[in-house]
Amino acid sequence: MQKKVDYLAGIYSKMHRNIVPHAVALDQTNLHLLDGATFAFISMDAAEAKKLAIVKCEEMGIPFVDVGMGLELVDGSLGGILRVTASTPKMRTHVHDGRISFGTGGDELNLYSTNIQVADLNALNAALAVVKWKKIRGFYRDLERELHSTYTTDGNMLLNGDQS
Q1: CA contacts within 13 A on the Cβ side of 100
Q2: Tens digits of per-residue pLDDT, 41-50?
Q3: pLDDT confidence of 98, banded at 50, 70, 90?
Q4: Which superkingdom (predicted)?
């Protein structure tokens, strides 16, 4: 069976150059795969691997965006909060002050695999992360210069915090 990373590399390599897939789980032995990066998008549950990636990005002096999602099922309906947290060489402390969780989770329901509707929330979270990246790169005007945003599904509420 083809791995997801190889499948997606095949699709995106038709539109972009220099895509190099790495079909491995990130850990202490392969952090060198991040060498040479100028920006990182982090979207992972693995607490230790996420912390390793964030520390590596900080050591390399590169900005990154980490996304997260917390969902709950109540009376047959999903609700939750999406999170986008950016870190730049100018401001990193908020990342280690609780904005990004390094816990392992432990929900009784694995909502990511049981609810197809989660795909749209993943897409929204990814889109918000790309918008933040474009703000950091100067493509979009960024008057607030927020480094932490949350989107709440039940009220369509987007809140910003941690201005740089």
Answers
A1: 28
A2: 998 876 889 9
A3: confident
A4: Bacteria
